[in-house]
């Protein structure tokens, strides 16, 4: 009897001794009307939040390691329980889980590299965002100021509402928490026609080396990854561009959904990514804007020395001003220098097909980076970027190299094809060089460059290298599938949120099936009763078709040239040299190599031949598409300090709209 008691006592003691303190951290994505609790051994413990929406709790461990989270209303009643089975382990206290999202490590590989980078791509303090994480952001903003932005994204006469709201901002990564004060702004012009708005947070103190956190809504994209895939393709080609990751965005009582967090091409970014040093001397940087179809266009024509000609053109903005540039008497001096040098070059070398023309251009312009950019724009059919619409780019005067360069950004108009715009020929999908020739903008810049055969040959060589290394279904699939895996659980959530928001604007009710289809080989047909946008090609389908046609194109021009080897990139090396020689050295090989001399190495590259039938049926389908709702469309414009350009076109039928406007990004 006595022995039994002692045994029981010992058992109890053991239980107490071995009961550990367990800590749980979970991010709520339920909105401010709910709290989160921990359900462990059938007991619910309400969790508390110091840095909303991160909830924590500590408990004493019991006999099981299984637990899950529950949603609770403000009276403490459990209103929902996640189905996910979670298992406590030694890492659990160190990570921030997310309610109703599996805690998993997704390996998102980089795309295969076609070229080594031309520029450093980052610095110790300013690194690319990780590819494999989803961040969370909650902003508590001044109610009136926030409501003004949310309900009135446009001011008088469809000008942008440029007001801001004061906020405190909590940013929670899978293992870190940041709190900042700052201001909330709307971003974009066309993007504010959508109900799911895009935002920018200007922080009083940096996070990840950044003063600005821009979150883009991706409201027209059923895959939520067009921008990301395109930016990774630029990266693969060694062209400097922004990095991004995903982020769940909540502001005040609104849950806005899944966004892309992207960098702005500003001073910090230029110092780190272009010069590889946070403190680098940054030169003048101009953002360009074009308004289709009637202009003005950022044609890069020389407009004289008067800075007003540039400033009031509506096409240029001095985004980064170099106070140390003592040669520059005004903010548009460097742009005037560039356009003047280009004009002079154009005149001098108009009929000169020799290497001299290339050498002269490369004295003041990074031609290699630009040609790689054009190749990616052609392959992805970048609908509103530099080549097609003279937009979404910066003209940077690099004081270190004393050269100008063009830096692309904003790729949400990629992988959609022509969207039935008659500015593209009916055979546009097979056309990899003159695909953008008929778009409305002034093609002065590109056309003068591409009149040189040596440069066109280099363009074809770059295209060949990119198609053989990355722009084929094998090359992009691992990346697309991994990103799908990363965001899949958030996609339906994002989709359903559109109905919980009470502002107005274009809506897309895409589905998880649309997402699966469109990341792979299927289009999303237009359905005007639920969606504003469609998507005529799946991502892999587009890569297969376009990559196949452009492979045919380069092989007809160059013969069959295997891909050049690309050495692994050494991130420590600030100035990696391009593996494939830039324009100059190639000029000794004036004639294209003979057709198919080497067979063994390239036979494994499987690029499925494009099926013409697919294209035909696609065209037939999209011809039937005639949305019925009355729409108001505008295009990208900008408001300078002194002049305001606005273009508002109201039409009752989509079909009757100017063709260039058939897509709103
Ligand atoms: C969890 O997420 C799924 C997918 O978004 C949703 O259908 C389900 O209702 C959510 N469950 C809870 C308990 O919130
Ligand atoms: C917003 O914040 C700025 C400083 O960040 C401050 O000057 C201003 O007074 C604030 N406005 C409001 C309405 O709180
Ligand atoms: C959080 O994770 C990132 C990336 O996985 C890592 O670089 C960082 O050091 C981690 N931070 C902490 C506080 O553990
Ligand atoms: C700009 O010039 C000032 C002195 O004129 C110097 O102290 C500063 O370091 C320079 N800044 C950069 C970024 O070169
Ligand atoms: C995500 O939500 C936005 C609106 O909130 C919507 O436009 C978009 O279609 C959704 N995307 C997906 C893939 O569900
Ligand atoms: C459009 O969407 C509605 C609502 O989901 C659906 O009932 C209808 O069948 C769809 N139409 C087409 C052509 O898919």
From TrEMBL:
Keyword entries, A-Z: Signal
Residue numbers spanned by region Disordered: 575-596
Pfam families, per the entry: CotH
Regions of compositional bias (Low complexity) in chain numbering: 580-596
Claim: Signal is one of the keywords in the record: yes
Extent of the signal sequence: 1-19
Listed name of the protein: Coth-domain-containing protein
Database matches in InterPro entries: Spore_coat_CotH_CotH2/3/7
Organism field: Anaeromyces robustus
Tagged with keyword Cytoplasm: no
């Amino acid at each position: 009897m006595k022995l039994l008691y002692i045994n029981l006592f010992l058992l109890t003691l053991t239980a107490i001794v071995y009961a550990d303190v367990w800590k749980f951290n979970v991010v709520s994505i339920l909105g401010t009307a709910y709290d989160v609790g921990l359900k462990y051994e059938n007991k619910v413990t309400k969790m508390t939040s110091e840095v909303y929406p991160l909830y924590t709790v500590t408990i004493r461990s019991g006999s099981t390691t299984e637990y899950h989270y529950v949603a609770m209303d403000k009276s403490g009643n459990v209103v929902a329980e996640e189905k996910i089975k979670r298992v406590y382990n030694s890492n659990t206290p160190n990570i921030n889980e997310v309610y109703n999202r599996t805690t998993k490590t997704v390996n998102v590989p980089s795309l295969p590299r076609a070229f080594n980078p031309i520029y450093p791509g980052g610095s110790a303090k300013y690194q690319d965002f990780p590819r494999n994480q989803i961040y969370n952001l909650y902003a508590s903003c001044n109610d009136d100021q926030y409501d003004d932005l949310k309900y009135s994204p446009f001011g008088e006469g469809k000008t942008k509402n440029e007001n801001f709201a004061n906020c405190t901002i909590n940013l929670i990564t899978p293992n870190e928490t940041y709190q900042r004060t700052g201001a909330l702004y709307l971003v974009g012009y066309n993007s504010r026609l959508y109900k799911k708005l895009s935002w920018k947070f200007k922080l009083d103190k940096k996070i990840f080396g950044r003063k600005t956190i821009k979150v883009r809504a991706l409201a027209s994209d059923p895959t939520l990854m067009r921008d990301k895939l395109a930016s990774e393709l630029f990266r693969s080609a060694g062209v400097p561009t922004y990095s991004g990751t995903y982020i769940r965005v909540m502001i005040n009582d609104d849950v806005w959904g899944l966004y892309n967090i992207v960098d702005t091409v500003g001073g910090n970014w230029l110092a780190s990514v272009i010069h590889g040093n946070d403190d680098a001397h940054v030169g003048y940087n101009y953002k360009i804007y074009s308004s289709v179809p009637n202009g003005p266009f950022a044609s890069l024509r020389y407009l004289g020395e008067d800075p007003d000609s540039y400033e009031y053109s509506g096409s240029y903005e001095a985004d980064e001003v170099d106070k140390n540039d003592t040669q520059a008497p005004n903010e548009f001096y460097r742009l005037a220098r560039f356009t003047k040098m280009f004009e002079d070059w154009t005149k001098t070398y108009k009929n000169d097909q020799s290497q001299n023309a290339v050498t002269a251009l490369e004295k003041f312009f990074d031609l290699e980076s630009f040609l790689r950019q054009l190749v990616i724009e052609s392959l992805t059919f970048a609908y509103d970027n530099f080549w097609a619409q003279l937009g979404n780019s910066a003209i940077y005067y690099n004081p270190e190299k004393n050269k100008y360069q063009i830096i692309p950004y904003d790729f949400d108009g990629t992988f959609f094809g022509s969207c039935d715009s008659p500015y593209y020929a009916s055979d546009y999908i097979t056309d990899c060089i003159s695909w953008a020739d008929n778009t409305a903008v002034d093609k002065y810049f590109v056309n003068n460059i591409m009149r040189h055969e040596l440069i066109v040959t280099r363009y074809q060589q770059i295209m060949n290298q990119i198609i053989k290394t990355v722009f084929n279904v094998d090359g992009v699939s691992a990346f697309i599938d991994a990103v799908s895996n990363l965001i899949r659980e958030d996609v339906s959530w994002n989709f359903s949120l559109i109905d919980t928001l009470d502002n107005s604007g274009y809506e897309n009710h895409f589905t998880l099936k649309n997402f699966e289809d469109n990341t792979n080989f299927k289009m999303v047909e237009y359905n005007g009763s639920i969606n504003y946008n469609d998507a005529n090609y799946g991502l892999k389908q587009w890569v297969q078709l376009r990559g196949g046609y452009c492979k045919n194109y380069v092989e007809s021009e160059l013969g069959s040239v295997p891909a050049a080897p690309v050495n692994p990139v050494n991130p420590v090396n600030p100035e990696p040299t391009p593996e494939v020689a830039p324009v100059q050295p190639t000029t000794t090989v004036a004639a294209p190599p003979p057709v198919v001399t080497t067979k063994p190495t390239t036979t494994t590259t499987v690029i499925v031949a494009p099926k013409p039938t697919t294209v035909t049926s696609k065209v037939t389908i999209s011809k039937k598409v005639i949305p019925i709702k009355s729409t108001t469309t505008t295009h990208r414009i900008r408001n300078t300090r002194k002049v305001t350009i606005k273009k508002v076109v109201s039409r009752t039928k989509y079909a009757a709209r100017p063709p260039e406007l058939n897509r709103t990004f």
